[in-house]
Amino acid sequence: MFDPRVQQLSEIYAQLFETVVEQSRLLAPIIIDRANGIATALGKSIQQQETQKIAQAALGLIDAYGEMDGNDTKIYKSDAFVIRQQGQLIGIHHRPDELTDFVNPLMEFTIGKNDHFAIKTPPKAMLPSEKEEFLMVSDRLESGLPNAKTDLRDLAAALGSLAPAGTLSTLESFRQTEALGLLNQILEKAKTDEIQVGDYLISRRRNLEDGKGQLCLKKGDLDLVKYTVQKTPQGLIKQLDKLNLTQWDWQQIQFIARNTKSLNGLDGSLVSSVGNKDSLPFVSQIKVPLHPALKKAWDYLNQHGWSVNTQAGNDRIKATLEQSKGRLSVAEQRELYYKCLLHHQELMSAPNPIHLPSIKDVMKDLERWRKQAISAHYTPIQHLAINQEKAADTQAEIAL
Predict the structure, then answer these.
(1) What is the mean pLDDT of the chain?
(2) Per the confidence metrics, is the pTM higher than 0.85?
């Protein structure tokens, strides 16, 4: 038997459902707007934190390596940037801005209290990869930046484009054996195994019993260069054991070679324009293989889709990977890491969950690979067949 109360109750529920649906439709734009507002505020907060970290890195670099340049100005120069401090004002500039009297800062800030910086010019003109270079240095501040007397190869691997100016050109001079050949020929022309000129001592030692020769350059008590050649039944092993030669020191050695009277006959071809950095890439542009964890995440997200907010820059990354056969710079990989991290939930929900290691672990791997790439390309250990020994000596290397 039909009960009218059931019908009445059904109508009440139907009306209530329609009301809820209508209210949801009306409220949806408000909810979305508020969500977007929260996302925008969060994005601004992250940008502000990154800007503060960039400022911390710039201050750390100029404190560690900066030099006074007159008029109460402190300067630190890398191949790509100049950091300039005048009183409490610090500016970050591209190197070419030196020619315009520093009128186009990438970023300017003043030092405030409690490790907070007042940002005068935000880093809007900085490329993402340039920001990552500063953020990597910022991450190192707690443990301390490398000592200025650290091996140049380690300094380049740790600081990238923020390594001291001339780092890459000096490494290039050793790759071409120019610096080692010049040091050795200074001794040959002076007809001695040891020569002191100003602060610099160049010496060569041979041990005929064990077939080993060593070439050294010292500045006071500091070893700038140590280079070993070992003769074996299979041939010669050439190895650069120590490299702490700055661009300034290298220029002084070139000057000694050109101007010491007893060395007037020195082959001028060895004193070349190694200081011309324009033809060389920055250390930061050295590319290493894409980290395996990032490769998995990159491949998965390319297949299953990126969010609208994380698509920016993907075409550039794809083009770089294609051109460099699966390699990216350390800064580019750091940038990619944080893009992938925004999709953590999707990656962990994949059929085979993709787990991103900590950024600290990823950076440790990438910087180790960059150091290996620098050593392999610029200062490699060389094994020469015995029939090449004479040719090696002819090239102004250590004669055993």
Answers:
(1) 78
(2) no
